[in-house]
Amino acid sequence: MTEELIIAGFGGQGVLSMGKILCYSGVMQDQEVSWMPSYGPEMRGGTANVTVILSDDRISSPILNSFDSAIILNQQSMDKFEETVKPGGLLIYDGNGISRHPERKDIYIYRADAAAEASKMESAKTFNMIMLGAYLKVKPLVKLENVIKGLKKSLPARYHHLIALNEKALQRGFEIVQDIQVL
């Protein structure tokens, strides 16, 4: 199994963290992983994306032009990465701020309104974990307990009190994901 994934949005949405947690989770399952971030100098508010590869075999290159899956968090990322999803692949997106929804007919499309759900949870910082939960519901690449271990590895100890909240956010993602187009 090899999964090539792009996660894209604005800086500050937890794009890079989501990728890092997925990679830590893959390592816990004895997978080969690659995490390649890309972001502008403005950090928060600028564009950010990360390429993640999880594989049972060695990864030859972290540089990709097409992806098995895409997690899209804003319109600019939708415009840039929708066409890079391989036919038969998966695109999952947060509907907040999306004015042009995915139009492809040859991919699976899912929507998770994670921004609205994070607002209901009164914690904007859970946004990325809600999206990750939604993605893992559709494509269970890593076990939930390994995601929690990945959270512990990637969060500084001073934030470990937020792990229970993030676990709840992952669960909400499982619950709110909607299939828009299933092939």
Overview of the structural elements:
It is a single chain. With 183 residues, this protein is of the alpha/beta class. The chain has a single domain (2-181), classed as Pyruvate-ferredoxin Oxidoreductase, domain 3 (3-Layer(aba) Sandwich). It is 36% helix and 27% strand. It contains 6 helices and 7 strands. The protein has helices at residues 15-28, 75-81, 114-120, 127-138, 144-154, 163-176, and strands spanning 2-10, 32-39, 47-55, 67-72, 85-93, 108-111, 178-181. It has a 7-stranded mixed beta sheet with strand order 2-3-1-4-5-6-7, with helices on both faces. Strand 4, helix 2 and strand 5 (85-93) form a beta-alpha-beta unit. Helix 1 packs across helix 5 (144-154) and helix 3 (114-120) crosses helix 4 (127-138). The protein is globular, with a radius of gyration of 15 Å.
Provide keyphrases for this structure.
single chain; 183 residues; alpha/beta; Pyruvate-ferredoxin Oxidoreductase, domain 3; seven-stranded mixed sheet; 6 helices; 7 strands; globular
Order the strands across the largest sheet as they lie in space.
Answer: 2-3-1-4-5-6-7
CA radius of gyration: 15 Å
In helices, the fraction of residues equals 25-40%
CATH class: Alpha Beta
Q: Can you give the mean pLDDT?
A: 91
What is the second-level CATH architecture?
3-Layer(aba) Sandwich
Portion in beta strands: 25-35%
Uncertain regions: pLDDT < 50 for 5+ in a row?
A: none
How far from one another are the termini? 21 Å
CATH homologous superfamily (4th level) name: Pyruvate-ferredoxin oxidoreductase, PFOR, domain III
Largest sheet: 7 strands, mixed
**Which fold name corresponds to the CATH topology?**
Pyruvate-ferredoxin Oxidoreductase, domain 3
Instruction: Give the topology string: H per helix, E per strand.
Output: EHEEEHEEHHHHE
Task: Please count the beta strands (DSSP E, at least 2 residues each).
Answer: 7
General form:
globular
Structural class: alpha/beta
Number of domains in the coordinates? 1
Number of helices: 6
